[in-house]
Amino acid sequence: MSRVHMRDLFDADPGRFERFSLECGPLFLDYSKNRIDGTTLRLLTELAESVNLADWMTRMRSGDKINLSENRAVLHTALRNRSDEPVYVDGEDVMPGVREVLQRMRRFTDRVRGGEWLGYTGKRITTVVNIGIGGSDLGPMLVARALKPFGAAGIDTHFVSNVDGGHLSDVVAGLDAETTLFVVTSKSFTTPETLLNAESARDWLVAKLGHADAVARHFVAVSTNTPAVKAFGIDPDHMFGFWDWVGGRYSLWSAVGLTVAIQIGMDHFEALLDGAYEMDCHFFSQPFERNIPVILALLGIWYNTCFGAHTHAVIPYNQSLSRLPAHLQQLDMESNGKRVTRDGFTLDFDTGPVIWGEVGVNCQHAFFQLLHQGTRLVPADFVLAVKSNYPLGNHQDILVANCLAQTQALMRGKSEAEARAELEAQGLTGEALEQLLPHKVFPGNQPSNTILLDRLTPRSVGGLIAMYEHKVFVQGVIWGLNSFDQWGVEYGKQLAKRITPQLTDYSSLDTHDASTRGLIERYRRHRGG
Ligand code: F6P
Question: Which three-class secondary structure string do you get for 265-323?
Answer without folding.
Answer: CHHHHHHHHHHHHHHHHHHHHCCHHHCHHHHHHHHHHHHHHHCCCCEEEEEEECHHHCC
